[in-house]
Amino acid sequence: MNTFDSLMQGFSFAMTPENLLYALIGCLIGTALGILPGIGATAGIAILLPLTVGMEPASAIIMLAAIFYGTAYGGTITSVLLNIPGEGESAITCIDGYQMTRQGRAGVALTTAGIGSFIGGTAATLALVIAAAPLSQLGLMIGPPEFFCLILVGIALLAGLVGRSLVKGLISAVLGLLIAMIGIDPVAGAPRFTFGSEHLLDGISIVPVLVGIFGLGEMLYNAGGTAARPAAPRLRQLVPTGTDIRRAAPAIGRGTLIGSVIGLVPGVTSAISSLLAYSTERKVSRFRHELGTGAIEGVAAPETANNSHSNAAFVPLFTLGIPASPAIAVLAGAFLQNGITPGPRLFVDNSALIWTVIASLFIGNALLLLLNVPLVGLWTRLLAIPYSVLSALIFGFIVIGSYAVNNSIIDVFIMIFFGIVGLIFRRLDIPLAPLVLTLVLGPVMESALRESLQISGGDFSVFTTRPIALIFLIIAAVILTGSIFGSKFKRKAHLPMDAAA
Amino acid sequence: MSITQNSESALRTPTGQALPRLLFPAVLAALGAWVVVSSTGMGFWVRLGPGPGFFPLVLGSLLVLLSLLWIGQEIRGGRHGATSEEPDTSSVADLIIPEEPHEPLRPKNIAAIVVSLAVLAALMPLVGFQLSMLFFLVFHLRVMGRRRWLLTALVSVVGSFGVFVLFTRVLTVNLPAASIGFLQSLGF
């Protein structure tokens, strides 16, 4: 079956009333999470993950993926209307978006952001469709040594690019691997670091750890803080004028290109795509002198870029099994929970499921455009909920989410422990993204390492004599060396602290 | 729990002082050393290749090395003053995404949240999800949030009894039931 037929079959599954409903629920929850302070995509997906246990794998993944890209829309709404970036990737939209709101053009800004996100997301998903088959062919050529080196590239990218300190990034990665090591070892079956606990023999479930670090950790970090609560402005006009469209179109085009390319690189966050798209507009736009004063390009370009980035970020997961960001790593956890290993074999072993999920990405982007722009007034009312009520309810969900994976109270205590760890990481500026990647990939990484050395009879040259493995090793080394010498540059470029931002 | 206790005390102290900033990396170095020691008993190399202790040994050693590097950076940073860690604020990007300083910690609020969650987790298997969550929500809404009684009652009942019905009946997710006989007979 060729790519087009597979995609059409995916659409026929994704369009069933049940799957449409799950995509819709995911979009709604995602938007709400993006608007509300305190909980982002990563924690949201992690908390809801256990609740999808009883669902069909395809439906579960469709819903969780919709939450992932729905949060970006929610973040845009608060950036434009209230000058509060709900998500890090929308921070840059605040500049011109909020100026547009002050000029009474909030509706136009939101509609443009919605259309731009739709175009960017759809284009990136099309790129995924085109790239999926050849890339997963490449993926099938990858044996344990290559896979091990590929994960090293992912770790190097996350540790080297994301935080400001390479040492702290690597510490985060090592801690993730050590947590993943708890339980029965994947090759010989010996218990490790279980402290005699039967519960820990199965290893630590990733859900309580992620919920703790991203959900509770963030709530503790903000504990007692007061969230700004300005009144939402009235939306006078929703439809952009002809001039708006003529000005936004090239910015949307450039944003799509930037997001789709940058999104392919693991470890680079969508906040960086937005930032690059905005700085590109500052250089090439015909109206660059107006940027900062409410120019439509300043909303269209970064919003398009971050959504095309989010969708493009599925490519490394689906084709190589490498999650590009913490939120995608949690989605990878959703695949694993359903007994599906993300990676090149997806298109061989779970072809129907993966094409259904890809088709749902198109549907979800369309749903978000249709739903969110007209409903924006309703969404902003969510902000009227007092923070104390919201946080109490979020704590409740955090507890339910971490209990429900294994019906275990121990998991709730594990979640609380990692909440404190998450707080410490945030206070000490240790990036969280490398930890999540290695936590999810730890077991496969160790298996790949040990299988490689079994193949070679204990000879480490197996990593340097196979060409693809060697290329990956060199890339990882270049990234690490580059980030040591480039730290000064990085401070200047001021990359965001964490992929979770 | 010693890791968290130590590092929490590190957090409360102003970051300008050298000793507290060295505490967390020191704890990590100790953790790494412990991993190295534990891994030696697991079997470093077996007939087929690397044994269960191989990966932990590598990681433990890495953790020790990285933590020492961190300590070195902190000491050097302290000697040169904090300037080397200060970001260069002259670039355009800094104006776009300004560095957000950490908000002051609120140890009382953090402690209240952590302790209330731990109490909730401990009570759930005893008195069941509904009652323990009811108490938890009342505490957070009324005591911590100073909400009115009516709102507190409404949200707490919906958030405990309502959520229980929703999750166990509609979503078929199991939630903890009471282990005390008297409460069990009441349906908790």
What can you see in these coordinates?
The complex is a heterodimer of chains A (501) and B (188). Chain A is mostly helical and 501 residues long. Chain A is 71% helix and 1% strand. Chain A has one domain. Chain A is built from 23 helices and two strands. The C terminus of chain A is likely disordered. Chain B has 188 residues and is mainly alpha-helical. Chain B has two domains: 84 residues; 75 residues, no CATH class. Chain B has eight helices and two strands, in the order ααββαααααα. In chain B, strands 1-2 form a two-stranded antiparallel sheet. In chain B, a hairpin with a 2-residue loop joins strand 1 and strand 2. In chain B, helix 1 packs antiparallel against helix 2, helix 5 runs antiparallel to helix 6 and helix 6 packs antiparallel against helix 7. The two termini of chain B are 32 Å apart. Chains A and B meet through helix 8, helix 9, helix 11, helix 18 and helix 19 of A and helix 1, helix 2, strand 1, strand 2 and helix 3 of B.
Core attributes:
heterodimer; A: 501 residues; mainly alpha; two-stranded antiparallel ribbon; 71% helix; disordered C terminus; B: mainly alpha; 2 domains; two-stranded antiparallel sheet; disordered N terminus
Topology, element by element:
The complex is a heterodimer of chains A (501) and B (188).
Chain A: H1 3-14, H2 17-35, H3 41-48, H4 57-82, H5 93-102, H6 106-140, H7 144-162, H8 166-181, E1 183-184, E2 191-192, H9 206-221, H10 242-262, H11 270-284, H12 297-312, H13 314-320, H14 326-337, H15 346-349, H16 351-372, H17 376-381, H18 387-404, H19 409-427, H20 433-455, H21 462-465, H22 467-485, H23 487-493
Antiparallel strand pairs in A: 1-2
Helix pairs in contact in A: 1-16, 2-4, 2-16, 3-4, 3-9, 3-14, 4-5, 4-6, 4-12, 4-14, 4-16, 5-6, 5-12, 6-10, 6-12, 6-13, 6-16, 7-8, 7-20, 7-22, 8-20, 9-18, 9-19, 10-11, 10-12, 11-12, 14-20, 18-19, 22-23
Chain B: H1 2-12, H2 18-40, E1 45-46, E2 49-50, H3 54-79, H4 92-96, H5 107-127, H6 129-144, H7 149-170, H8 181-185
Antiparallel strand pairs in B: 1-2
Helix pairs in contact in B: 1-2, 2-3, 5-6, 6-7
